[in-house]
Design brief:
3 helices; alpha+beta; 39% strand
Length: 174
């Protein structure tokens, strides 16, 4: 997995493994509970996430391993329907979805880190090995833009909502 080396500021989406991995991160000047408070409302994502046009759970209880969801995302100039299954859940620190869209299979991982002063949200997409290089080259710019837009939208919404009414973080579980 590609991880940016400079963790003190926002990063442009980075790719590696011939473009199969896209990683971006953003610093948010609030504690993790404030980030999770906004992130956990999947059905509310279209209200604040400029890249997300629709989002809803399709099967299972929300935020439980094995639950499925569907989203419509703005990927470049196209709207793409994504089906995903929650594969890993260590809230709020790590959330992983196994996803598919238009014949593409990928893992999308959201990681949250905390320095004691700010939270850092990391969004990593890893596309399946069966995708050829021409496909990667054609879709990568749109997915990079979607990842960056999602993170910037999350930061804006967390700052707008603030920390009032969130639960207290007692210890980092990692």
């Amino acid at each position: 997995v590609c991880v940016a080396t400079n963790r003190s500021k926002e990063s442009a989406p980075m790719t590696n493994d011939n473009g199969r991995v896209i990683t971006a991160e953003i610093d948010i000047a609030t504690p993790p509970p404030a980030v999770w408070n906004v992130f956990r409302d999947l059905e509310g994502w279209p209200n604040w996430n400029a890249a997300c046009k629709e989002a809803h759970w399709t099967d299972g209880a929300s935020w439980h391993r094995g639950s499925t969801l569907e989203m419509v995302l703005a990927v470049g100039d196209e709207l793409v329907t994504v089906q995903a299954t929650l594969a890993e859940d260590d809230f709020p620190w790590l959330i992983t979805f196994e996803s598919s869209a238009e014949g593409l299979h990928f893992e999308r991982k959201f990681e949250l880190d905390y320095t004691g002063r700010k939270s850092m949200q990391i969004d990593t997409m890893t596309f399946a090995e069966d995708i050829d290089q021409a496909q990667i080259d054609s879709f990568r710019p749109g997915w990079e833009l979607m990842v960056r837009t999602s993170l910037e939208s999350l930061k804006t919404e967390v700052q707008r909502v603030g920390t009032e009414g969130i639960w207290e973080l007692t210890a980092r579980r990692r």
